[in-house]
């Protein structure tokens, strides 16, 4: 009887350890992904160095589902740069092109006007009520490179939220239930 | 590699690596062979020059001629070219202003559009100055082209195509009703 | 029903070690040659779409040829020793 109880507690203890090992490996994967993201942020001086194109206002150059790479170490803006900015009450960052740059002080603050390639008018309608130009402080970064179609998964997950829940739920189940190859 | 899932995921990720190498080759061979652009510009007529009734700024609108042959600039990495005309000048105390007055998207598929030949084209956006210093100013005109790639880095090219001087006095006064 | 699905899945799932070597070599050669061919053809024709389709087509071929457990990959089965009886 004692031997049986002993083996049962031993097995239960081992299962607990295995479960904890699985949880810790999962946390390590998540944390290393976060580390890579944060190092990208440090290298590019930018808060979100990779964005997915969500709207069609820059077609045909950038279609929905492309990913864009941003940097922010060069604060020198000229017309034709594609910038990502947020301002005022509109929280989603917008990816549009600069069409006018007027310096307020030499190499300092500047007035900037943006417009999407596919739109007919400039963005003054999107700015807050008393803003006719943007300033450099509104800008998150400049677009340097594009990779087409890589962000289609993000678009699908955004458009169909049930898909998002199934994918995350499925991944969690796979991590917890998968056979440990070392066992 | 023993199970189905292992093999499928190995093939998927190797395909991703191959596509990344192909994209690098695509961008690399195109960027080392980029040809410079060239254009001819002339000012045709200053159509409007005054104070904007809503923005309280100087503004000017003009008509121009522009010729350029962009056939050699396209390669297999260019998806389209964003061509635009900028007007640049310095204020009286050395601050730069650069304004886009006209732009156009030229797709690689439309080969007829590759040769630009515009006569008497009206500018799309106003040349405006917040400090109202446009009277009598000599401005430089640049023709710029932004390569929008299929994959890879974007690249801007620009060439100086001319300059003109704005009139010493406003052409008319524009009230809100008439504008 | 459950048993039937399990046995069918095992038929396309398991391959032996010699098969693993062959599968490794095969899908890598298929994809690398396809990438090189796609790069050359794309550069000559100046068309990225054709190059992409060549690589994706080769990935599909690799899926079919190496993804499932065909019989050439199962020909060198491991020989297990005969079971020996317990001492107890």
From TrEMBL, chain A:
<comment type="similarity">
    <text>Belongs to the peptidase S26B family.</text>
</comment>
<dbReference type="InterPro" id="IPR036286">
    <property type="entry name" value="LexA/Signal_pep-like_sf"/>
</dbReference>
<dbReference type="GO" id="GO:0004252">
    <property type="term" value="F:serine-type endopeptidase activity"/>
</dbReference>
<keyword id="KW-0378">Hydrolase</keyword>
<dbReference type="GO" id="GO:0005787">
    <property type="term" value="C:signal peptidase complex"/>
</dbReference>
<feature type="transmembrane region" description="Helical">
    <location>
        <begin position="19"/>
        <end position="37"/>
    </location>
</feature>
<protein>
    <recommendedName>
        <fullName>Signal peptidase complex catalytic subunit SEC11</fullName>
        <ecNumber>3.4.21.89</ecNumber>
    </recommendedName>
</protein>
<keyword id="KW-0812">Transmembrane</keyword>
<dbReference type="InterPro" id="IPR019758">
    <property type="entry name" value="Pept_S26A_signal_pept_1_CS"/>
</dbReference>
<comment type="function">
    <text>Catalytic component of the signal peptidase complex (SPC) which catalyzes the cleavage of N-terminal signal sequences from nascent proteins as they are translocated into the lumen of the endoplasmic reticulum. Specifically cleaves N-terminal signal peptides that contain a hydrophobic alpha-helix (h-region) shorter than 18-20 amino acids.</text>
</comment>
<dbReference type="GO" id="GO:0009003">
    <property type="term" value="F:signal peptidase activity"/>
</dbReference>
<dbReference type="InterPro" id="IPR001733">
    <property type="entry name" value="Peptidase_S26B"/>
</dbReference>
<dbReference type="GO" id="GO:0006465">
    <property type="term" value="P:signal peptide processing"/>
</dbReference>
<keyword id="KW-1133">Transmembrane helix</keyword>
<keyword id="KW-0472">Membrane</keyword>
Automatic annotation (TrEMBL), chain B:
<comment type="similarity">
    <text>Belongs to the SPCS3 family.</text>
</comment>
<dbReference type="GO" id="GO:0005787">
    <property type="term" value="C:signal peptidase complex"/>
</dbReference>
<keyword id="KW-0472">Membrane</keyword>
<protein>
    <recommendedName>
        <fullName>Signal peptidase complex subunit 3</fullName>
    </recommendedName>
</protein>
<keyword id="KW-0735">Signal-anchor</keyword>
<dbReference type="GO" id="GO:0006465">
    <property type="term" value="P:signal peptide processing"/>
</dbReference>
<keyword id="KW-0812">Transmembrane</keyword>
<dbReference type="GO" id="GO:0045047">
    <property type="term" value="P:protein targeting to ER"/>
</dbReference>
<keyword id="KW-1133">Transmembrane helix</keyword>
<dbReference type="Pfam" id="PF04573">
    <property type="entry name" value="SPC22"/>
</dbReference>
<dbReference type="InterPro" id="IPR007653">
    <property type="entry name" value="SPC3"/>
</dbReference>
<keyword id="KW-0256">Endoplasmic reticulum</keyword>
TrEMBL record, chain C:
<dbReference type="GO" id="GO:0005787">
    <property type="term" value="C:signal peptidase complex"/>
</dbReference>
<keyword id="KW-0472">Membrane</keyword>
<dbReference type="GO" id="GO:0045047">
    <property type="term" value="P:protein targeting to ER"/>
</dbReference>
<keyword id="KW-1133">Transmembrane helix</keyword>
<keyword id="KW-0812">Transmembrane</keyword>
<comment type="function">
    <text>Component of the signal peptidase complex (SPC) which catalyzes the cleavage of N-terminal signal sequences from nascent proteins as they are translocated into the lumen of the endoplasmic reticulum. Dispensable for SPC enzymatic activity.</text>
</comment>
<dbReference type="InterPro" id="IPR009542">
    <property type="entry name" value="Spc1/SPCS1"/>
</dbReference>
<keyword id="KW-0256">Endoplasmic reticulum</keyword>
<feature type="transmembrane region" description="Helical">
    <location>
        <begin position="50"/>
        <end position="70"/>
    </location>
</feature>
<dbReference type="Pfam" id="PF06645">
    <property type="entry name" value="SPC12"/>
</dbReference>
<feature type="transmembrane region" description="Helical">
    <location>
        <begin position="25"/>
        <end position="44"/>
    </location>
</feature>
<dbReference type="GO" id="GO:0006465">
    <property type="term" value="P:signal peptide processing"/>
</dbReference>
<comment type="similarity">
    <text>Belongs to the SPCS1 family.</text>
</comment>
<protein>
    <recommendedName>
        <fullName>Signal peptidase complex subunit 1</fullName>
    </recommendedName>
</protein>
């Amino acid at each position: 009887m004692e031997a049986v109880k002993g083996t049962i507690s031993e097995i239960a203890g081992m299962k607990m350890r295995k479960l904890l090992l699985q949880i810790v490996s999962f946390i390590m994967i998540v944390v290393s992904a976060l580390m890579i993201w944060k190092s990208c942020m440090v290298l590019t001086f930018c808060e979100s160095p990779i964005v997915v194109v969500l709207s069609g206002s820059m077609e045909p150059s950038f279609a929905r589902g492309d990913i864009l790479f941003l940097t922010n170490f060069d604060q020198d803006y000229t017309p034709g740069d594609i910038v990502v900015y947020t301002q005022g009450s509109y929280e989603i960052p917008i990816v549009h092109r600069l069409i006018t740059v007027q310096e307020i002080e030499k190499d300092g603050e500047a007035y900037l006007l943006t417009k999407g390639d596919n739109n007919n008018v400039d963005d003054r309608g999107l700015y807050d009520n008393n803003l006719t130009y943007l300033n450099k402080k509104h800008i998150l970064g400049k677009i340097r490179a594009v990779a087409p179609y890589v962000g289609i998964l993000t678009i699908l997950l955004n458009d169909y939220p049930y898909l998002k829940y199934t994918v995350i739920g499925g991944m969690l189940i796979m991590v917890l239930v998968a056979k440990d190859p070392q066992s | 590699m023993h199970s189905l899932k292992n093999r499928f995921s190995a093939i998927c990720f190797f395909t991703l690596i191959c596509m990344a190498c192909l994209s690098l080759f695509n961008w690399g061979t195109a960027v080392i062979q980029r040809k410079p652009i060239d254009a001819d510009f002339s000012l045709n007529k200053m159509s409007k020059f005054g104070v904007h009734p809503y923005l309280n700024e100087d503004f000017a609108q003009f008509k121009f001629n522009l010729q350029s042959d962009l056939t050699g600039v396209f390669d297999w990495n260019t998806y389209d070219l964003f061509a635009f005309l900028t007007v640049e000048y310095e204020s009286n105390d050395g601050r730069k202003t650069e304004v886009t007055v006209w732009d156009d998207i030229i797709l690689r598929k439309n080969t007829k559009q590759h040769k630009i030949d515009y006569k008497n084209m009206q500018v799309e956006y106003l040349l405006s100055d917040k400090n109202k210093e446009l009277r009598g100013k000599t401005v430089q005109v640049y023709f710029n082209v932004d390569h929008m790639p299929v994959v890879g880095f974007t690249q801007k090219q620009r060439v100086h195509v001319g300059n003109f001087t704005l009139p010493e006095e406003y052409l008319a006064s524009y009230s809100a009703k008439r504008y | 029903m459950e048993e039937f699905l399990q046995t069918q899945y095992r038929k396309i799932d398991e391959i032996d070690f010699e098969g693993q070597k062959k599968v490794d070599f095969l899908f890598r050669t298929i994809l690398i040659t396809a990438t090189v061919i796609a790069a050359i053809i794309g550069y000559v024709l100046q068309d990225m779409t054709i190059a992409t389709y060549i690589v994706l087509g080769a990935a599909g071929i690799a899926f079919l040829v190496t993804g499932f457990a065909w019989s050439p990959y199962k020909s060198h089965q491991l020989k297990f020793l005969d079971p020996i009886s317990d001492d107890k």
